[in-house]
Design brief:
The protein contains 8 helices and no strands. It is mostly helical and 161 residues long. The protein has a single domain (3-154), classed as Hypothetical protein af1432 (Orthogonal Bundle), CATH 1.10.3210. Bound molecules: fe (ii) ion. Fe (ii) ion (FE2) binds next to helix 3.
Amino acid sequence: MSKIDNILANATFKEHLSRINEAEIDRIYCLHGIEHLLDVARISYIINLEESLGFDKETIYAMALLHDIGRNLEYEKGVSHHEAGGDIALGILRDAGFDEADCRLICQAIKNHKELKKGEDKRSLNYLLFKADKLSRNCFSCKAYDSCYWEESKKNKGITV
Ligand SMILES: [Fe+2]
């Protein structure tokens, strides 16, 4: 099995994703299920190719699949899903076969994807995840547009090509 298939088969991954799906059944705002995770993976990989960033495809897909894995803990315990997600992701990545350097890089990107540090390198994995996560949201066709907490300037009002 590939490292990505190992993540999909991981019991901790499946448990968190299932709890996120349950918690979001009636949610009118952005969801964090497998569709979103794969959108972020594919957008990240496209940017990676377009901008010749040079990140490994499995690194990108693992990062995207795990970036919101702490969401249910944010719903259940009020903790930051970024921080919690980075911690949960570490064990899953190790079990999936990623080496320590990749684990560190991916977990750091997950922990930092809420907002970018000043001067963040635009060719970093942190920046790539942040950008792809935001680009993945179709605000222009969202029924909850008016009550969404996102600042007006951050909403995707169209499709950037
Ligand atoms: Fe996300």
